[in-house]
């Protein structure tokens, strides 16, 4: 059973690391700010989400697991809104 | 396990590299962003040094509050620059400033390199003292802060109040007593309002939580207070609330509450426990939490006022 959990953690965290890697490559390689923002939000939302998912079976208690999910939710909320704000500022700047 | 040292060395290089980049950046805004990232990396460094309390403070103050403070300061400097266009410092001034910075950095480096081995430390004495009057607190850091070096902790908050008074005194005489200029633009973006509405209640709860667990786990008054301050600033940036008038009585009371309560209890210790700032052992823990509650209040009020700036007679920018 614990081996199965370990495998699940490994797969989920590995996938999360892949998203962070891809997001970082996008951040460096994409041509303009809006597409870079797009790459960044994928890394934050999916990458962190998968890493949190992988860490869940390893949490000490239900409360610790809840805190992990809460952290992800907070990052989602702030990431999505700041991406909106930056995008809006960019559009204002282009006009 | 053998990967960790490599990561640590990488982290150290990253911190130094980012610091150099922050100093070298030509654009004010870019260097502020670099500084914020530098603060967050430093928080990671503190975690790796097994100092989660310091890491929390660094992330909240070094990464968060100072970043907001520098960005607002940068914006005001930008407005000033238009008035004083062409007033770049002379070459001699640049050389003197550079030499002075080099001297300070060199002296610091020399002190660090020539530290005796083992380095002189007060840690055992502090740990022993924390076991005594600070007993009952599971977190030795909080015990040392409030019990062993209580006077320093109290004076730190006095410094915060002095800084607020300093900021206020920059305003025009005619504006004295009025409110500082609003933090956000007149029509804040919908995303900002939504973020403040979602984040502020949760963040305030987490701030109180961090203060409360500070007695037994990493956390404490400053970290919790800084989070509360950040949430208030978020609400002000979304124009859900405005900066208060600086002559408001509740504001002044909240500002001085922390150090005042600390001082009163410190003097009470003179009679009750036989020493200035000594706590009667039986009541040490509730007393310390009582003091910290008012400390949180003072910090949560002082930091946003530093960011809001001097009072401004006009109602909008």
Q: What key attributes describe this structure?
A:
heterodimer, A: 95 residues, mainly alpha, 3 helices, 88% helix, 0% strand, B: 317 residues, 11 helices, globular
The percent of residues in helical segments of chain A reads over 70%
Strand fraction of chain B equals under 5%
Order of helices and strands of chain A: HHH
Number of strands of chain B: 0
Q: What's the total helix number of chain A?
A: 3
Kindly report how far apart the N and C termini of chain B lie: 55 Å
Hey, roughly how much beta strand do the residues of chain A contain? under 5%
Alpha-beta classification of chain A: mainly alpha
Q: Which structural class is indicated by helix and strand composition of chain B?
A: mainly alpha
Low-confidence stretches of chain B: none
- The H-and-E topology of chain B, N to C, reads as HHHHHHHHHHH
| Terminal Cα span of chain A | 58 Å
The overall pLDDT of chain B, averaged over residues, is: 83
Domain tally of chain A: 1
Counting H and I runs of at least 4 residues, what is the number of helices of chain B? 11
Main sheet overview of chain A: none
Quaternary assembly: heterodimer
Provide the gyration radius of chain A in Å: 16 Å
Structurally, the number of domains of chain B stands at 3
């Amino acid at each position: 059973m614990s081996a199965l959990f370990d495998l699940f953690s490994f797969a989920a965290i590995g996938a999360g690391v892949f998203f962070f890697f891809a997001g970082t490559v996008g951040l460096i390689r994409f041509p303009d700010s809006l597409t870079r923002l797009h790459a960044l939000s994928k890394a934050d939302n999916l990458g962190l989400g998968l890493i949190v998912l992988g860490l869940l079976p390893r949490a000490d208690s239900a409360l610790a697991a809840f805190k992990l999910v809460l952290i992800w939710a907070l990052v989602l909320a702030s990431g999505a809104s700041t991406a909106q704000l930056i995008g809006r500022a960019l559009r204002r700047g282009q006009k | 396990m053998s990967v960790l040292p490599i990561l640590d060395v990488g982290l150290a290089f990253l911190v130094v590299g980012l610091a150099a980049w922050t100093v070298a950046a030509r654009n004010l805004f870019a260097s502020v962003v670099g500084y914020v990232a530098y603060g967050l990396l430093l928080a990671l460094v503190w975690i790796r040094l097994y100092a989660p309390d310091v890491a929390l403070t660094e992330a909240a103050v070094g990464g968060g509050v100072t970043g907001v403070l520098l960005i607002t300061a940068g914006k005001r400097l930008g407005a000033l620059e238009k008035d004083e266009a062409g007033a770049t410092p002379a070459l001699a001034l640049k050389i003197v400033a550079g030499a002075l910075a080099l001297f300070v950095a060199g002296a610091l480096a020399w002190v660090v390199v020539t530290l005796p081995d083992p380095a002189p430390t007060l840690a055992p004495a502090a740990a022993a003292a924390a076991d005594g009057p600070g007993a009952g607190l599971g977190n030795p850091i909080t015990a040392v802060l409030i019990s062993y070096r209580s006077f320093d902790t109290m004076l730190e908050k006095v410094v915060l109040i002095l800084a607020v008074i300093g900021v206020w005194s920059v305003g025009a005489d005619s504006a004295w007593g009025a409110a500082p200029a609003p933090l956000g633009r007149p029509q804040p973006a919908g995303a900002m309002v939504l973020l403040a509405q979602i984040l502020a209640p949760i963040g305030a709860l987490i701030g109180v939580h961090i203060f409360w667990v500070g007695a037994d786990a990493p956390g404490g008054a400053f970290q919790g207070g800084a989070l509360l301050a950040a949430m208030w600033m978020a609400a002000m940036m979304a124009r859900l609330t405005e900066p208060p008038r600086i002559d408001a009585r509740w504001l002044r009371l909240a500002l001085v509450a922390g150090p005042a309560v600390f001082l009163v209890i410190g003097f009470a210790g003179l009679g009750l426990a036989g020493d200035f700032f000594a706590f009667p052992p039986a009541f040490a823990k509730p007393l310390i939490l009582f003091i910290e509650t008012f400390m949180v209040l003072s910090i949560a009020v002082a930091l946003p006022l530093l960011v809001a700036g001097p009072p401004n007679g006009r109602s909008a920018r």
